[in-house]
Amino acid sequence: MVQLTEVVDEHFQADQPGPEDDDDFTDTDSEISNDSDYDPSSETLAERLYALRDMIPPHTRTSIANKFNATTGAISNVLSFGGKTLWVVSTTALILGVPWALAWAEEQQVIEMEKEMKMREMGGEILTAGGSQTGGSATAQQVGAALGQEAKPAL
Fold first, then answer.
1. Sign, Cα dihedral of 97, 103, 106, 108
2. Mean per-residue pLDDT for 80-99?
3. Which long-range contacts (CB under 8 A, 24 or more apart) does 114-119 make?
4. Quick one: which H or E segment has residue 149?
5. Of 58, 128, 136, 146, whose CB neighbour count within 10 A is largest?
6. What is the model's pLDDT at position 23?
7. Whole-structure pTM value
8. Per-residue confidence band for 31, with pLDDT thresholds at 50, 70 and 90
9. CA angle 22, 28, 31 (to 5 degrees)
């Protein structure tokens, strides 16, 4: 038969290194039973919500955090794309639109000048045509016919 004998290791018999005095040892039970300076009215809403994190299981917290991060990432991407799109549209409008608007305004001025010159020419013709017609209404009719609209005398 086999006989077992206990062999004691000297390493386990020696004391552990470290301080020998127990001056810094405190009993946790005595701290809990003491009155503390805790004031619940000074606690913020964020601190209270942070304290509730242990009530939600870690898997659920992870799921909520992932959904929140995905949503904020999507919103960030949409805003970034929207800003870049707005930049492209606004610069394109400035580069193409301003010269076009200036050219259009200049063209309108030329058209108005041509109308004015045409009216001056017709005014000279009407005045030189003279007194063959009676009254000022004939002059107004001639001017209106030249402009393509019905004109009425001012007086």
1. negative
2. 96
3. 118/146, 119/143, 119/146, 119/147
4. none
5. 146
6. 60
7. 0.40
8. low
9. 110
pLDDT tens digits, one per residue of 57-84: 889 989 999 999 999 999 999 999 999 9
Q: What are phi and psi of 145, to 5 degrees?
A: -65, -35
If phi > 0 it is left, if psi is from -120 to 50 it is alpha, else beta; for residue 134 that is beta
Q: What is the pLDDT of residue 51?
A: 82
Token output for 53: 């994190």
In the numeric block, which tokens belong to residue 43?
A: 């606690």
- Token output for 56: 């939600």
The pLDDT assigned to 152 comes to 56
Count of C-beta atoms within a 10 Å radius of residue 126? 16
**Integer Cα distance of 155 and 143 in angstroms:** 15
- Among candidates 111, 143, 151, 147, which has minimal Cα distance to 124? 143
